[in-house]
Amino acid sequence: MSGRGLSTWGAYLPRARLERTAIAQALGWMSQGRSRTRGTRSYCNWDEDALTMAVEAARDCFGARARRVDAVTLASTTLPFADRSNAGLVAGALTLDDRCRTADAAGSLRAGTSALRAALEGEGLALVVASDARAAKPASPQEQAYGHGACALLVGPADAAEYLGGESRTADFVDHYREAGVDFDYALEERWIRDEGYAKLVPPVVKAALARAGVEPAGVAQFVFPAAHSHGRKLAQTLGMPESAAAEPLADGCGDTGTAHPLLMLAQALERARPGDVLVVVGFGQGVDALVFRAAPGIESARPARGVSGALAAGRADGAYVRYLSHSGLLALDFGMRAERDSRTAQSVAWRKRLDVTGFVGGRCTACGTVQFPRSRACVNPDCRAFDTQEAHGLAEVRGRVKTFTEDWLAYSPSPPHVYGNVELDGGGNVFIEFTDVGAGELGVGTPVRFAWRMKDVDRVRGFRRYFWKATLART
Amino acid sequence: MAHGIRDKVAILGMGCSRFGERWDAGPDDLMVEAFKEALADAGLERDRIEAAWLGVFYQEQSTSKSGLPLSMALRLPNVPVTRVENLCATGTEALRGAAYAVAAGACDVALAMGVEKLKDTGFAGLPERTKGTFEDLWQPGFTPPGAFAQLGAAYAAKHGLPMDELKRAMAHVSWKSHENAALNPKAHLRNRITVEQALNAPMVAYPLGTYDCCGVSDGAACAIVTTPEIARSLGKRDLVTIKALQLAPSNGVEMGHASWDGAHTPTTRIAAAKAYAEAGVQDPRAELSLIEVHDCFSITELVLMEDLGLSEPGRAAFDVRDGRYDRDGAIPCQVDGGLKCFGHPVGASGLRMVYEVYTQLLGRAGARQLSSPTLGLTHNLGGIPNRNVASISILGLHAA
């Protein structure tokens, strides 16, 4: 396959999905009749954020491929660190080569499509990840509309889709905004956004992009516009595309995932595309990006293991509105004195052990073959115990089975019970580790697990969060 | 193995404070309470003590560090005091220090004191503490019940035992200890319970309910040790000597090697084999009159019966329910109520166990006295199944 474009994609949505009826039930007394009650919205577990979701999407994107990329860009409006490379942390969790260029892209919901365009029109293999976990004020329209999620796209050989061209415009159109340091968006009237924003700003850019790509609007199979479906359909019509081309905006499944959303919708479009289909994706936020792709002949074989369809299917819907508020940091529940534990990180240790902790790299003894975590100076095998024989051995993609576990209702966890235990690794080795995204009664001895990179502790005193790997049910 | 210390060290006197939520007492009070009893028992002047070992685990919150808290609380005559800590094996570690000093001939009379003042944290259960700067970055934030609960699911799976069957055996373990503690005026929890109560208790950490967990208690226990010869010269007729004192810490296998099944404590097996050899015990099932084991949780006691070689593999749950370890069973276990009900002031527990065996061997146990015991075993499991310290002592009557 010649040409530059998308090699593959990956998606991630948190397992937690809040039924919108639960929001309506909780807030009906103050918002009677104004609530959307259909579908679910995705939201982060307490230990998830834009970074952990980005890593999961990227892992899905890479699949079994060699993780050889020249650059990583992480786009988000909810990056946890204002001054610490967020993309660098993602690269570390993915154990990418440290020569890889890393950059954070932020400042607008268009950050994802802009980063993607830059990568497509640049050189080398590039990973573009967009991930957002926007908070919404309880009872706001955003609370129902928003979701949390991430999408990763691998830019390089056009195994999945060829890039035909793109256009961008900048316009300080303030449909919503969030001042630095403020928790919530301030959103303006939807009708004004529709009439002055979508209707006037988008069509010229899409037309220019299509012209650059040499594609007639009528030939567009899927038109990705990250807003309510009615807006996408209206724009498609205006642009002369088949109305059916307007892509479904995942409103029922996960909600609007911010910077990730145009990419997630594009990924869903790729999952539905047939070879030769033309796809247009639009990013909207203080301007417009429009990118045009043609599905490659081999697109079927470029599909990731999970993708958007898998991510949507992996959800667990419930009506636990108070849990959603708590996990989202919107309701201060009393977790007792055990929650006062200090989680100060010794940064010099974290640096010394960065491969172990961020990358989940253990050791494999070259004398006896024993895999172990953490890597140590002396082999843990009681029949070996050789000194200085261990080579780095990545464990993040290794799977295992539950050897022992408990559901601990006494230990502090923002999501009780605190579940932890021993996992026997496929291929040998044992790790004593926390579990995440498992509820009471979901684990048994022998349950197959995979590992996920999550927040381990939050240091509220010093404004820091640290990450490590946790075991979770192996679904895909 | 070297000759060990069998019969080289005699217990001259012992003391144990009342255990419980001692809102009335600080660590100094508890140590003095235990020490006065031991001193009277030994029939000795305080200044005959030539060296002392202080065992305390959470020193940050009770006694502060070093050997000074003991020296100052007891106003010892400026003799060396060594502060030791080896998780829940701390009390036994203190005894090991004192016993080894006497066995080595470095001093004639030595004191081992274990103390813990836990109930000043402001919440139930044990305080949390850092596990180490690197360990905090990856190890789960566990509680003791959660860490030991791991044994439950793994044991049930390994032996194909339905969890409700195992739970019933665990409930029997706790029921038995409550029955025993009812007869012990120094015990923390002296109420009787039913097996059904234990089974229906709220879950703390699956599969452990409230009654599967030991008491979190304040207390102190101590021993004054010397040589059998000196003890005789001081007029002691019935003499309890240390037959064995062994310690086995994990070296990482349980934490990082697939060979561990999660359903037993390898260190206990190692310490037991060494202790039986040191004590010259050929058949522990026949020779041991009583045992005091680390029943921090019901599942721990159950699993330990196999690790100590007292139940066949996979049979502990059945032996427990058959009453084999009840006070009228073949090997009475925790006749004083154990950690479960006597209580578990961490640094004191090892010495509390020795205190009970000593008391029983001398026939001083009152309402809970067993009939003519001759040999007793104590066992601690410090830490958690994934990384632990097992300690075992064997004590017996010394032939005149």
Topology order of chain B in helix (H) and strand (E) letters: EHEHEHEHHHHEEEHEHHHEHHHHEE
Strand content of chain A: 25-35%
Q: What is the CATH homology-level superfamily of the largest domain in chain A?
A: Thiolase/Chalcone synthase
Distance between the termini of chain A: 28 Å
CATH architecture of the largest domain in chain B: 3-Layer(aba) Sandwich
As for the CATH topology of the largest domain in chain A, it is Peroxisomal Thiolase, Chain A, domain 1
CATH class descriptor of the largest domain in chain A: Alpha Beta
Question: Which descriptor suits the 3D outline of chain A?
Answer: globular
What Rg of chain B, in angstroms, do the CA atoms define?
19 Å
Query: How many individual β-strands of chain A?
Result: 22
Fill in the CATH topology of the largest domain in chain B.
Peroxisomal Thiolase, Chain A, domain 1
> Level of helix content of chain B?
25-40%
* Spatial strand arrangement across the major sheet of chain A: 5-4-6-7-1-8-13-12-11
Query: In percent, how much strand structure appears in the residues of chain B?
Result: 15-25%
CATH superfamily of the largest domain in chain B: Thiolase/Chalcone synthase
How would you portray this structure in words?
The complex is a heterodimer of chains A (476) and B (400). With 476 residues, chain A is an alpha+beta fold. The model of chain A has no long low-confidence stretch (mean pLDDT 96). Chain A is globular, with a radius of gyration of 23 Å. Chain A has helices spanning 20-31, 50-62, 86-93, 111-120, 141-145, 190-213, 229-239, 260-272, 307-313, 321-327, 347-352, 354-359, and strands at residues 4-12, 16-19, 40-42, 71-75, 101-105, 126-132, 149-157, 161-170, 176-177, 186-187, 220-224, 278-284, 287-295, 316-318, 361-365, 371-372, 390-394, 400-408, 418-425, 430-434, 448-459, 464-473. Chain A is 26% helix and 29% strand. Chain A has 12 helices and 22 strands. The longest helix of chain A has 24 residues, at 190-213. In chain A, α2 packs across α3. With 400 residues, chain B is an alpha/beta fold. Chain B folds into 2 domains: 10-119 and 218-233, Peroxisomal Thiolase, Chain A, domain 1, CATH 3.40.47; 143-214 and 240-398, 3-Layer(aba) Sandwich (Peroxisomal Thiolase, Chain A, domain 1), CATH 3.40.47.10. Helix content of chain B is 36%, strand content 18%. Chain B has helices at 27-42, 68-73, 90-103, 135-138, 144-158, 163-181, 195-199, 228-233, 253-256, 266-279, 284-287, 298-307, 316-321, 338-341, 346-361, and strands spanning 10-16, 51-55, 81-84, 110-116, 203-205, 208-209, 219-226, 239-249, 290-292, 375-384, 387-398. In chain B, the strands form 2 sheets. Chain B has a 9-stranded mixed sheet. A two-stranded antiparallel ribbon of chain B has the order 5-6. In chain B, α3 (90-103) packs across α15 and α6 (163-181) crosses α12 (298-307). The interface between A and B is large, with 53 and 47 residues.
